[in-house]
Structures are given as C-alpha cells and as structure tokens.
Amino acid sequence: MIYYMINSLRAVMCRKVMIFWPLVGLLFGLGSVGNAVADTDSLKRVIPVTEAGIFAERGAIYRLMNDITSTHSAVFLGNNVTLDLNGYTITYAKGDYEQIRNGGFEQGVIGWDMTKAPGAKVVSTKEVHAFVGDSLLSMLPDDEVVSSYVNLAYPNRSYYAMCGITGRYDKDRKTLEDNMIISVYVEDEAGELVYCQTSYMDTVVTSVPVERKTPRLGGGFVVAHLNGLPAGKYRVRIKADTDCLIDEVDIRPAFDVGIGIVGEAVPNGHNDHLFEGKYTAFFDYADDVRRTRPRKGTPQVKGGGTIVIKNGKIKNGTPGVMSWGVQSTAEDIKLVLENLEIESEGINSIAVDVPQATISKCVFRTNNPYIINRHGSQFHAVDLRGEKPSEVSYSSFFGGQGCLVLKGKGSSVYRNIFANRQTVTNHYSIAASGDSLRIYENRFEPEIGSGINVFRRQGVEIFDNYFKVSVAPPSCEYHLDYSTNGVRLADYGAVRGSEKGARFNKIYNNTFEIAAHRFDEYPDYVGMANAIFFSASAGDNEVYGNQVSVWHEDPEAKTIAHAFYIGNADGGMFERNTVVSNVTPIWVACPYGSAADIDLTMNTLVKHKDADLDFPAIRLGYKGARNPALNIAFRSNTLIGMPFTVEQVGEAEKDYLIRWTLDAKFVGTTGTGVSGVPVSVLDRQGSEVYRGASSVGGGLKVELTQTEVSGGVVVSNEPYKLVYPGGEQLIHLTENVKLKIEVKQ
To answer: Highest taxon of the source (predicted)?
Structure first.
C-alpha cells in the first residue's frame, strides 16, 4: 500500500520521495504579459495580453491580442483593472484530461471490472429511477465495481473522483435517514489504494477514500478529493454499502477558474463540506500555513474598487467539476461583466460566482447535467451571493441547474431571457434570495423547469414578465408527483408577521402560458404545472393584474395544470387576474397543505373556447381529513363560458363565502343619472344588510354575500330585495349583477 499525505507545508510524500509545490505560475500554466503600449484613446495604460497570467497593475487596461488557454486556471486579476477580451477567447482547464470509459453505463458494463459485483446490473433511468442519461448501475450491498484507468497528466493539483448516486425517491424512504450509501476508493496504476490526508480551511481530514457516504434527498454525487498526487494512471472503485443506483463515475479536474479575483482563499472541498453547504474557492491557491491567504504570487484584492471584464468569450476546455468561468471572493469589489459569452460544462461547473456584479449584454451557456447537492441555492449558472445590490440586464441564460441567484437587497433583473434546464428540485431560473428585488420585463421559457422561486423574502416585485412553463417528467427526487411553476412564493408555514417569512411581495402584470400533457411512459405520475405556486403564511402578499393561459392537451390525464395552486398558505390577495383555461384553474387547500384567509377578488375566469369538457371554477380541499380551507373569500369574480362552481374535496373543514357585486344605476326619465336616491337592500330573511344612496351620476355599488359555508352548514342569503322610492326589485345573485333603474325625480 502506498500512502500519500499532504502535511501543513503541502509537501507530498510518495514512496519516500518528497515533492514540493513548484511556483504557482509554472504549476498552473500562468505566463507573462507583453510590454505596455500607449493607448491614444485613453489615459489608462493598455497592456497587450498574449498568454494566460496574472494581471494586477492598478488602473491598467489589459487587452487580449489572441485566444489564450491554460491547463489549469487561466487568469487572476488585481484591483481596479479592466480586462478587455477584445473578441478573443479564454479557455481554462484545457489539456490532456481523460474521462473514465463508459462512466455513465450507457454502453452497459464495457470498461468495468464486475468480478466482485455479482448483484450488479445496468437498468433504465426511465423504468427504475430518473437521473442522467438513459442508464445507470444497480448494485446490491457489498457489490464492488472497478473502472478503467485514466491518466492524470498534471501532478499536484485537485481532482475529484466522483460517483453519482440517485438516493431513494421521496415516497420510498422508510425514515428520513433511509438512503443509499456508497464508498469511493481510488487506486493507482499498481492497483494500490490511494490515501490523501488534506489540509482544509479549518481541519485536516482524509479526503481519499470517502467511506459510507450518502447524498441528501434528491440524489447527487459522492466525491473524493485527490490532491498533491504525482502524474500517473488512476482508477475508481465503488463499493455499495447498501443497495444503490450509481451513475456518472469519473475523475475530473476540480476548482479551476477562467478568471479569478481573490479576496481570500476558502480552501474547503471535502465531500462533507459540500453537503454542509460550506463555500469553496481557490483551494489550489491557498497558502500552506495561513490557509485563507492566497499563495505567494497570486494577487490579493482588498477593499473597494471596480474591475471590468468585457468583450469576449470564456469557456472550460474539459467537462470538469466544481469549476467557474469567473469567481471572486473580493467582497467589496464592484464587478462589471459586459458583452461576454461564458460556456461551462460539468458537474457543479458554472459561469459566475461572485458577491455582486453589474451584468449586461452577456450570454451564459451552462451544461450542468446534475449537481453534487441540490439543497441550498448554490451552483446556478450565475451566483450573485453577496448582500450588496446587483443588476442583470439584456443577457441570455441557456441551460444550467437554475440560471441566476440573487441575494443582494434591492437588486434588479430586467430584459433578460432565461431558458433553464432544471432536473433537480427548487433550482428555478431565478432564486430570488434577497429582499426588495425587482424582476421585470424578462422572458422565461425553461427547456425543463420553473421560473422564479421566492423563499422567505420580503418586498420582492415581479412584474411585466413572460413565462412559458410546461409539466416536467419525473425527477430524481419525486416520481409520483412533481411541480413546475412560473413563480413559487413560499415560507414553509412561517407565522404571521415573521421577519423570516414571505411578506409584502407583489406579483403583477405578468403573462403566463401554462401547458400540460399526458406521460404515457409514466402512467401513475401526477406531474403538474402552475402559473403561481402560492405557499406563503407570513402575510400581505399580492397577486394582481396577471394574464394566465392554462391548456391541458388531455384533461382526463393524471397530470394537472393550474393558474393558482394554493396550499400551506395563510393570507394572500388574488385580484383582477384574467385566466383562460380548459381545466379547473384554481386549487385552494391543495395537496401541499391547508389554506386560510385567502381572498380571490374581481378575477375573470374564462372557459377556453376549445375546451371539450365542463369543469368547476374552483377546487377546494384535498382528499381525507387534512388540509382545511378556512376563511376563503370568492368576491365579485367574473365568469365567462362557465358557472361559478366550487368542487369540495375531502372531509376537512371548509369555511368560505361567495360574494357578488350589485352595480345599479338610477336614471331619470331623460336617462340622466340621479344622485341621492335612498336605497336599502334586504336579504332573503328580510333583514336589512345595506342602506345608502346613489352617488353623483346615479351609481350605486354594493357587494353582497350569496353563500356562506362554515362547519358544514351552508347558508344562502339570496335572493335579495332592492328597495328604493317608488319601487323594489328581486335580485337573484349568482353572478355580478348590473341594473339600470328609472326613478321619478
């Protein structure tokens, strides 16, 4: 057995030979820049760039003169510099990187040693468990499989030996702890186990092998962090500690950046760190002793300042893992990204990870088929994770497990295109993770997935956007039911008024196109698509003025679609929205949970002209005795092409009322409105429920209750009697009523 150890000096002991890290510039392929030349158009120095390197002269403009590449990270910037790519491309992590043959089992078990895996077999992702591609490997406890060798051409750098693992479906777990468990080992070309003892930010721990590890709910990857090893051939051994389903086994370069801005190094990266949500940056550039300080030769950016990156393309040269097109830990820097195209490919490989930025006229193409740990809001294509405001405009996002994370209070996002390709739960096109955000005039057309997720935020405004959302196939986490949504507003049952809840948010003047269809290959699957998934309880949230189209290709299928899907909700105003649908458009107290104090007022519900079947306007409650609907108000809504009917589901308590508006106009014999006409309204028992007079112009509007339901008792208050001088009228109140009444003057 060979024992590799990285001590506090980052030295490597390999068969009693001591290998020290070479200079950072040579180790990571960082070259020099050209001589400075005068720029006739600017007072700033313009420095031509022909190779990857460190560009840190304060106030300088660095301008690419050709495409540049690096086998590792490519560029590090100092404070107050401009990097003008000048139409050229920076390619990082481009070199002699190999991938394990048939790591995704798409070719069966070709390339794999199955000698110690009598129970292992290749199965279909469609038939057994959704994950990546069409195939994965099913293993029984104590099965072991061994990959083919790959050549790791570059010594003393970080790699991840990784193994995708589906975990159990949400409804298949016996307990919260019931999950699939594997161990990941690495062997050298002699077939000996590799051990790495790695110094992280706050501890020294074994990073290879990792034993008896499991993903969280939703599946992911187990990773073993290789670093400080000599070049050579290595392979992966996977042991099933329980029955499990594995996929996408590989050894890939890790922690590379196209452009780095180092405030401090954050040398985390152990498997456990990733499932604890610990942030990771510049592991291979951390100082040996003071781990948060960058290694000598890497510029450290402190304090405020502005860094501009513009006019070109950044891409990774090989599908990696945990890599970034642009990464910054300089918390106070104002970063400007303009007219860039960033291509990222790999697991947890994204375009941008910075505290805050102004982003304009950029294109982000992210091929990220899955992520290590879907929980939390990290590893969208662009992560703006700081508390200061950012601005994102006139940009396009294609692919990714989510497109954009915003955490800075008062950030704005406008006039962008989002084409998410989300296969993991809750990685929406936008994770609205800051307060007082303004998201407007964007277009959301996810290939798979959802639009905007607002979780426990306050003062977010979402307006004048376009959403086109379709029902998605089963995910790795949910195979019986799963939702995609234009907007999701949630706080997991926060108490009224809680500062940690969703409050004072507004969703208005948006256009939604929601579509659903049958999945013949998944006959028991209840996929759903919703314009707005409303699950907020802290109160004072408004949804108004939206235009929603809901179309189900097969309304009798198990898949469903809604304009408003309301559950685990307390408080909420839905007002003056227009919905055109061929299925029931609103579900209150849905399977997601109960509902209380929901007010649906002056909405217009239209039966689609091509609808083949009749359907209720409202579905209230869910099967069984759970999910009560309490104090629900349906007020003065307009129905076109269908009656206002409420389908009550389940035995849970339902407490609601239906109200309509009586709109009367009193006119004289000449047709002119008459003001001051005394009016009273009596209910069916003869009790006076309103007394007043017509206004200037003769108008009078009063909202009257048709039906009250409480504790299983249904009370009807109509017909009403409208009484005025010289006459009275009987009013049958099953919809909004308009009257014109002639009175003597």
So the answer is: Bacteria
pLDDT at 129 over 60: yes
Dihedral, CA of residue 102, residue 128, residue 552 and residue 635, to nearest 10? -120
Cα distances from 378 to residues 142, 402, 500, 617, in angstroms, run: 33, 9, 20, 39
- If one counts every other C-beta atom within 10 angstroms of the C-beta of residue 505, the result is 25
Tens digit of pLDDT for each residue in 365-390?
A: 999 999 999 887 789 999 999 999 99
User: Which residue in 206, 220, 235, 216 sits closest to 173, CA to CA?
Assistant: 216
Residue 37 burial (10 A CB sphere; 0-12, 13-18, 19+): exposed
pLDDT for the residue 218: 87
Strand 737-742 relative to strand 654-667, pairing: parallel
- Give dist(CA 505, CA 492) in Å, integer: 16
* Beta-sheet pairing, 526-535 with 481-490: parallel
Cα gap 533→78, rounded to integer Å: 44
Give me the half-sphere count of Cα atoms (radius 13 Å) on the Cβ side of residue 102. 17
CB contact set of 294 (below 8 Å; sequence gap of 6+): 262, 264, 265, 282, 285, 286, 287, 300
Q: Give how far Cα 95 sits from Cα of 15, 60, 193, Å.
A: 27, 30, 26
State the Cα–Cα distance between residues 658 and 717, nearest whole angstrom: 10
Residue of 363, 373, 277, 278 lying closest to 321 (CA atoms):
373
- Would you call the peptide bond into 719 cis, given omega within 30 degrees of 0 as the criterion? yes
* CA gap 55, 35 in Å, rounded: 12
| CA atoms 473, 477, 483, 485: torsion sign | negative
CB of 657 within 8 A of CB of 667? Answer: no
Phi, psi (rounded to 5 degrees) for 271:
-50, -45
Q: Residue with structure tokens 């020099």?
A: 32
Q: Can you read off the two tokens belonging to residue 339?
A: 């007219």
Tokens of 38: 């005068």
Residues 6 or more apart in contact with residue 402 via CB below 8 angstroms: 377, 379, 380, 381, 420, 422, 427, 428, 429, 430, 431, 449
Tell me what the mean pLDDT of segment 682-707 comes to: 96
* Residue 408 near residue 390 (C-beta atoms within 8 A): yes
For residue 60, the tally of other CB atoms under 10 A from its CB is 20
What pLDDT was estimated at residue 498?
A: 94
Angle at 602 (CA atoms; ends 597, 604), nearest 5 degrees: 115
Cα distance between residue 555 and residue 480, in whole Å: 18
Neighbours of 141 (CB within 10 A): 12
Q: What six digits make up the tokens of 463?
A: 């307006």
620: part of which helix (H) or strand (E)?
Answer: strand 618-620
Q: Tell whether the model's pLDDT for residue 477 goes beyond 70.
A: yes
Contact yes or no for 131/245 (Cβ under 8 A): yes
Contact call for residues 241 and 183 (beta carbons, < 8 A): yes
**Euclidean distance between CA atoms 444 and 404, whole angstroms:** 12
- The residue with tokens 């290590």 is 372
pLDDT at 43: 67
With a cut of 50, say whether residue 298 has pLDDT above it: yes
Identify any residues that bridge with 688 across adjacent strands, giving them in sequence order. 682
**How many percent of the chain have pLDDT more than 90?**
89
Rounded to 5, what percent of the chain is helix, strand, coil?
A: 0, 50, 50
Contact between 311 and 339 (Cβ < 8 Å)? yes
